[in-house]
């Protein structure tokens, strides 16, 4: 690698696209600034363009470390990013096992199982930690033991909120039909940054079509609208099951694709879906240093 050329891989899962970096390939002068790297690389006009930055680091043959940063530089948990890192780790020799562990945001340990077809990764199952429902764990500044059907008025409209932490903070609004652009872009960012959420929240609008199928539209904290969200799919499925609307295994569909979510009360959440490597390239960091206005 040259002094300024940073190798990267563009990966995608469920319509979420990421710039993936290997830790040892990052110049030492940038290793202490992953937040700034995310802002530069994820910027669509001037960077590579992505919903987030993934950094993968070797640990043991059975364990890798993943850090994920939103385009605004905030660090977060990411269900779709986990699958992308799992595939990359297997195909690039970080592990030769089809079952291993990814250490993710705030030390959360995520077991991974690869499903192979003729030696190639066909699908990936990740096991997210058990959902957390108490407002202190979401976190959300309300009273009670859970947040279900909680009324909140925003821009003269009262929304009925359901919230859960499936690795990160999610708020779900169940509705008869997905919002149009005007309503979605008017209400979602206001809810993301509402004072009730000290760490902000992702906002998921969801329609339960049947006991086996849910559709959703996604506003991710620190990003805006995205085509997919793995931990968000888990949140929607878990909350719909608690309401008695869906079965133990449900398919969650968004603009970017679909995943299967399996959950039993008081247990971790299993998500099965795909992940793809789209292309590789090199980004020249000396140009980024000239563009500090990004």
Task: Describe this entry's structure for a reader.
By secondary structure, this protein is an alpha+beta fold. It folds into two domains: 5-129 and 276-290, Diaminopimelate Epimerase, Chain A, domain 1 (Roll), CATH 3.10.310; 147-267, Diaminopimelate Epimerase, Chain A, domain 1. Helix content is 19%, strand content 43%. The chain contains six helices and 18 strands. The protein has an 18-stranded mixed beta sheet that branches. A hairpin with a 2-residue loop joins strand 15 (249-254) and strand 16. The longest helix has 13 residues, at 79-91. 42% of the residues are buried. The model has no long low-confidence stretch (mean pLDDT 95).
Q: Please identify which CATH superfamily of the largest domain we are dealing with.
A: Diaminopimelate Epimerase, Chain A, domain 1
Fold-level CATH name of the largest domain:
Diaminopimelate Epimerase, Chain A, domain 1
Q: What overall form do the CA principal axes indicate?
A: globular
Uncertain regions: pLDDT < 50 for 5+ in a row?
A: none
Oligomer state of the chains in this structure:
single chain
Number of helices: 6
**CATH C-level category of the largest domain:** Alpha Beta
Q: Can you tell me the CATH architecture of the largest domain?
A: Roll
* Proportion of helical residues: 10-25%
Major sheet description: 18 strands, mixed
- Strand portion, in percent? 35-45%
Distance between the termini: 24 Å
Radius of gyration: 19 Å
Mean pLDDT: 95
Q: Tally the beta strands.
A: 18
């Amino acid at each position: 690698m040259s002094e300024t050329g940073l190798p990267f891989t563009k990966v995608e899962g469920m319509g979420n696209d990421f710039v993936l970096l290997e830790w040892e390939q990052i110049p030492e002068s940038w290793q202490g600034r992953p937040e700034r790297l995310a802002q530069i690389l994820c910027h669509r006009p001037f960077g590579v363009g992505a919903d987030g930055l993934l950094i993968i680091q070797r640990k043991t043959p059975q364990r890798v470390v993943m850090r994920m940063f939103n385009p605004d530089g905030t660090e977060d948990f990411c269900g779709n990013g986990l699958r992308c890192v799992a595939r990359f780790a297997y195909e690039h020799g970080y592990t030769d096992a089809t079952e291993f562990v990814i250490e993710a945001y705030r030390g959360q340990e995520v077991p991974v199982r690869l499903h192979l077809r003729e030696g190639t990764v066909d699908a990936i199952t990740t096991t997210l930690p058990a959902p957390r429902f108490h407002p202190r764990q979401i976190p959300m500044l309300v009273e009670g033991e859970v947040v279900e059907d909680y009324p909140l008025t925003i821009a003269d409209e009262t929304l009925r909120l359901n919230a859960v932490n499936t690795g990160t903070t999610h708020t779900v609004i169940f509705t008869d039909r997905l919002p149009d652009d005007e309503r979605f872009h008017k209400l979602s960012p206001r809810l993301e940054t509402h004072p009730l959420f000290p760490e902000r929240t992702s906002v998921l609008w969801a329609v339960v079509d049947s006991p086996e199928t849910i559709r959703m539209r996604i506003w991710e904290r620190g990003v805006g609208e995205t085509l997919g969200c793995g931990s968000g799919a888990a949140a929607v499925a878990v909350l719909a099951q608690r309401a008695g609307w869906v079965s133990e295994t449900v398919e969650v569909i968004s603009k970017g694709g679909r995943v299967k979510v399996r959950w039993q009360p008081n247990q971790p959440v299993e998500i099965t879906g795909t992940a793809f490597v789209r292309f590789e390239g090199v980004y020249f960091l000396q140009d980024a240093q000239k563009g500090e206005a990004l």
